[in-house]
Amino acid sequence: MQQPEVRAERPGLRPEQPETRPERKDRTGQPEARPAGSRALQNRQRILAVAQAELIRDPAATMDDIARAAGVVRRTLYGHFPSRDALIDGLSGLAGAEAHAALERSRRPHEAPDLALARALLAAFAVGDQWRLLMTVDECASPQGDRGLVTALDPSLTFITDLLEQGQRQDLFSDHLPPAVLTRLLMSSVITLLQALNDGLLPTDGAAAATARACLVVVGVSPERAAALVREAAAG
Predict the structure, then answer these.
(1) What is the CATH number of domain 93-234?
(2) What pTM value is reported for the model?
C-alpha cells in the first residue's frame, strides 16, 4: 500500500504566518466591526445616508429606528456599527472627509493667505451647514459633546494652520498666538456659530458670510478688510 508523501521542511524556512493587524476599536472601547466586500461597503454607505436623514429628523432616533428606515435587520446594522456611538463616529468621519475635500477644492494657486482663508472658511461652512445637526446628536450621545466632530475635522486643520503661518509672516494676521492655536480657535468659532444657527440665534440668511467675517476678525483682520475678503471669495 502506497504511503502518503511527506514533504520535508526546508531548513531555514518557516511556514507563512498570517498577517496580524491591530484591532480597531470604537470610542466606547469595543472592537470595531469591519465587514468586507463591495456589497458591505454599499450597505454601509446607505446606512450612513439614512442615519444622517433620520438623526436630522429626530436626534434621539434609536438604532432600531435607523435599521427600519434603512430596510435592514438589526444584525446587519450592528455588523457595521456595533453601537450608536460607532454609528455617530461614522457620520462624523464622513463629515470630516467632506470638509477636507471642500477645503482642497477651495485652493487657488498663488493666492494671498487672507483671501485663501476667507475662501476656505466659506467652503468649510457650506459643509458644516449640511452637518450642523450632527453636533446636537453627538452632544446627546457622548459626554465629550461635539468632540467627535472636531476629531473628524483634524485632517483639515493642517491646511488652515499653513495659511495662518504664511499670513503671519506677511503681517496679514495677528501673531499674538501660534498658528496651530489660532486654528483651534477658528474651529471653535465655526462650531459655535453653527450651533447658534441650530439654536435660531444666528439668522440663516448671510450666516456663511457672517461666520467667515467673524473668523477673519478673530485672527486679526480688520472688520472692513474681512468684509471685502469675504465678498471677493464669494464672488469666485
Answers:
(1) 1.10.357.10
(2) 0.70
